[in-house]
TrEMBL record:
InterPro entries, alphabetized: AKAP, AKAP_28
Gene name in the database record: Akap14
GO CC terms: cAMP-dependent protein kinase complex
Lineage: Eukaryota, Metazoa, Chordata, Craniata, Vertebrata
Sample GO molecular function, one term: protein kinase A regulatory subunit binding
Annotated signal peptide: none
Name listed for the protein in its UniProt record: AKA14 protein
Length: 133
């Protein structure tokens, strides 16, 4: 079933800028049901030129700082791609995908409900690995 992202205006090739893309990702993230203790920051990583499109890569890095540990032991990343078609009209909506660190599964924000558990699992696995080393 389609997951409707409420009150978010789509981004198109004609109104796209790198900063507008980052802001759009922030709007998508704001619709996710994540506890307020999770903090994140987002950044633009790179532009990728393809034959029929341009891809813009971004990362959102997540952690749960606490009073006892204001610098968390581990963080989790979500990687976003905004793809602008070169063959469709400039007014066509951009394609947006995201993946989670350590996963190959590609998600579309409008077709899935983000799970806070995904972030927890990444961080827990990192902490287990750190403790083993």
């Amino acid at each position: 079933t389609e997951h409707v992202i409420k009150n978010i205006q789509g981004i198109t090739g004609s109104n796209f800028t790198v900063e507008r893309g980052r802001q759009h990702i922030e709007e998508i993230i704001s619709t996710w049901e994540i506890h307020e203790r999770w903090l994140h920051w987002s950044e633009f990583l790179q532009e990728e030129e393809l034959e029929h499109s341009k891809r813009y890569h971004y990362r959102a890095c997540w952690s749960v700082p606490t009073r006892r540990k204001p610098i968390p032991r581990a963080a989790a990343s979500t990687y976003f791609i905004i793809e602008i078609s070169k063959t469709k009209p400039a007014t066509s909506p951009a394609e947006i995908f995201f993946t989670l660190e350590s996963s190959r599964l590609i998600h579309r924000p409008e077709k899935c409900v983000f799970r806070e558990k995904w972030l927890k699992d990444i961080i827990e696995n990192k902490i287990i690995l750190i403790e083993r080393l």
